[in-house]
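Hello again, I could really use a second opinion on something today. My current little project is about how a certain protein chain folds up. You're getting the sequence in one-letter code plus the fold written as tokens. Here's the protein in full, and shout if anything looks odd to you:
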Amino acid sequence: MSMFMDFESVIKNMGELPASPVVATKLLELLRKPDLKIKELANAVSLDPVISARLLRMANSVFYQLVKQVNTVDRAIIIVGEDVLKNLALEYSLRSTSRTFGVMERKMWEHSIGCAVASRMLADRLTDIDKDVAYLTGLQHHIGKVVMVNRDKELYRQVRQAVESGQGQLRDVERALFAYSHEVVGAALLDYWNYPKMIVEATLFHYEFEKIRVEKPEIFKLCAVINLASDFCHHFGVGFSEEMDIDLSLSRGALALEANPMIVEDLAEKFYPTFIKERNLFLS
């Protein structure tokens, strides 16, 4: 049975699933067009009042230091730029999949944003992987946790408590309480949403990526980027209650990428300020 056929049983057993991020998907499609017009993009953004409102707030934030207020979507797009718009839509689609947004969800959201930011930086400096693909994979690779929290928040809180008290590894505890680990659930959801196969597979294998080194070298490389990006987040406490003392140059991801330790150190110095900047933009 193929991986994608197995996803069907996962979907059936996970209850009601989040709706596909329609506007984000539409924006991604438009942003790939070489002859894209701002008005066309503005029309797509305007389909979602929440994204429109946040885009305007972002354009009028102190970050851009404008004298005149921005009051149209197309002008706001020109101010913030297409990359920020794309990231805003993707971030919103991630947060909107959560039915509640308490402390646990906030930490998960920050970790996803942090992984996305680090993945983009790492892919750009260390690989030939499209940095936008890396960003999106970093953003969504833990989406399975969101599905689990939506299904039974208290049960997933028990998962976190068991892991934090040393009763087991995360994926083992998830399987014990939910039948599946979060990477399987996440990959099934992204496949259900018709995400690119590369992102679906990277989500599925982001923990055990060594096993696909030979069979799927590009997925292996993307998974290594995600793994190192996650260690960046652990190192700086992004999405976690405290920082962890990690030698990033010896991370499984760094070793898999054969990354130059000096480049890893340079990226690590730039990561946290970049994360804070993007997080604050999303919260503006």
Residues 213 and 220 are 5 Å apart (CA to CA).
